[in-house]
Amino acid sequence: MLELKNVCKTFHPHTPSEKRALKNLNLTLEEGDFVTVIGGNGAGKSTMLNAIAGVWPIDSGSVLIGGEDVTRLPEHKRAVYLGRVFQDPMTGTAADMELEENLALALRRGQRRGLVWGIRAKEREEYRELLKMLDLGLETRLKAKVGLLSGGQRQALTLLMATLKKPRLLLLDEHTAALDPKTAAKVLELSDKIVRENNLTALMVTHNMKDAIVHGNRLIMMCDGRVILDIKGEEKAKLTVDDLLQKFSVASGSEFVNDRALLG
Questions:
Q1: Residue 52: φ, ψ to 5°
Q2: How far apart are the first and last CA of the chain?
Q3: Which pLDDT value is given to residue 254?
Q4: Contact 158, 85 (CB under 8 A)
Q5: How far is Cα 247 from Cα 229, in angstroms, rounded to an integer?
Q6: How far apart are CA 20 and CA 250, in angstroms?
Q7: Could you give the domains of the chain?
Q8: Could you tell me if 34 and 194 are in contact, meaning their C-beta atoms sit under 8 angstroms apart?
Q9: Nearest to 27 by CA among 201, 215, 251
Q10: Measured distance CA(39)–CA(154) in Å, rounded
Q11: pLDDT attached to residue 231
């Protein structure tokens, strides 16, 4: 479902601020994979997600989604293949629009626009049923402005919106980092449920080692712009944080340094 082949990206080339963020990065995700991504500061995690989403062009290499080469496609044309939830709960929704209006925009993504009545009664009932699944009481607030929701409610709504059209690939970019632990656990539980029930292929960047181990069927660790660990199956099921730290030290030749990850 996803292939990254020798992807390279350098920021500010040929200047004192030059930073090689991705170095011949290779990664393949099979359909239905739920891969968690962890790594130290500057490892290239979010840069990789931005390369997949087409936020900016890569220097070399190729990006394939569902077997289609999207390397040269701009971000707005890749959006039809992708769903994405960002770290900031304020991103991914329109704060001044109602819940049902946000859901309608998500459902009409990629469709031609026409002059018809905005949201029909049947459609509104479908939204109500979808929101019930979140178990956050939002099904009774269809007319509420999204900007009035809490961070956790908004992130759960964003997750629902990102997956309404069953994207080929779901990108979760530290989507619980800005939430309190209880709310983060709820959003992660919803993420698991939505990915599982819709058989989605997902890539989740996290700073929390425990979350990276518990969630998904596969874990990769990045360092210095490349994948240095790829753990799945029985090995992942038995993994502990101490095991992961030790494996990182062996694979990278250095200690894992990331305060957020270690504290998490």
A1: -65, -40
A2: 30
A3: 63
A4: yes
A5: 8
A6: 23
A7: 2-81+167-263 (3.40.50.300), 97-165 (no CATH)
A8: no
A9: 201
A10: 27
A11: 92
- Whole-angstrom distance, CA of residue 87 vs CA of residue 241: 23
Determine the Cα–Cα distance for residues 230 and 215; give it in Å rounded to an integer.
14
| Neighbouring residues of 142: CB distance < 8 A, sequence distance ≥ 6 | 98, 99, 100, 124, 127, 128, 131
Distance CA 141, CA 131 (A): 9
**Secondary structure letter of residue 199 according to DSSP:** T
What pLDDT is attached to residue 27? 95
Contact criterion met (CB below 8 Å) for 198 and 170: no
- Which residue positions in the chain have pLDDT lower than 70? 110-118, 253-264
**CA–CA gap between residue 138 and residue 100 (Å, rounded):** 10
Distance CA 5, CA 28 (A): 9
Which residue's structure tokens are 């069927």? 217
pLDDT at 93: 86
Cβ atoms within 10 Å, residue 203: 26
Residue the block writes with tokens 């518990």? 214
What's the pLDDT score for residue 114? 55
DSSP assignment of 31-57 equals TT-EEEEEE-TTSSHHHHHHHHHTSS-
The pLDDT value recorded for residue 263 is: 42
In the chain the beta strands, taken as DSSP E runs, fall at: 2-11, 19-29, 34-39, 60-65, 68-69, 82-85, 169-173, 202-205, 218-223, 226-232
Residue 223 amino acid letter: C
Q: How many CB atoms within 10 Å of residue 106?
A: 20
User: What pLDDT does residue 253 have?
Assistant: 66
What is the per-residue pLDDT for 259? 44
Report how far residue 175's alpha carbon sits from residue 177's, in angstroms, rounded to the nearest whole number. 6
Distance (Å, whole) CA 119 – CA 124: 7
